[in-house]
Amino acid sequence: MSPDKMPAGPPLWQQGWYRYARGLTSPNFGARPEGALIDLIVIHSISLPPGQFGTSQVQKLFINELDWDAHPYFKSIRGLEVSSHFFITRDGQLWQFVSCDQRAWHAGQSSYRGRSNCNDDSIGIELEGLEGGLFEAAQYETLSSICAALLLRYPIEHLAGHEHIASGRKHDPGEGFDWSQLQASLGLPSKCFPANA
Q1: Is 0.90 topped by the overall pTM?
Q2: Which of 126, 128, 131, 163 is catalytic?
Q3: How many domains does the chain have?
């Protein structure tokens, strides 16, 4: 069968939801400001409890179903309402919690490329891991794939870590994250990345 006769599959994106992600809808989101230009990807790291992987507690946090009494650490974040567009587990599974067309609550007080409130015009991707720690090959593979898909869908011009948009307040993903590997996999010029990455 010739390529022009091949049946069309489901679209890669549907109202900001990525076809190859496992969807789990978070209530923690809002509308982006009118005219917001979605041109920034922010990379974070998270694990709950810190340093424990594969617990599903991150997913529960993002959908407001975390049992605050399940671990002593959770008392320090009790009542926190946050979200990210995507979460990548240690084995490379991709989860999505908020449509990329909407504003997720991942950046907090922030500024980058001369603009504040990075939640307004960014897409947040959380990697399961420890701030400053190393990440798995499967995570880089998935991260590269979703970033490539985002580059095709949105006018992305910048990629940065939480540490770059909330300097002094946040330190993730930290020195264990390989920015040069991500840059090489995406084939983007260095101007798209933080100067100190």
Answers
A1: yes
A2: 126
A3: 1
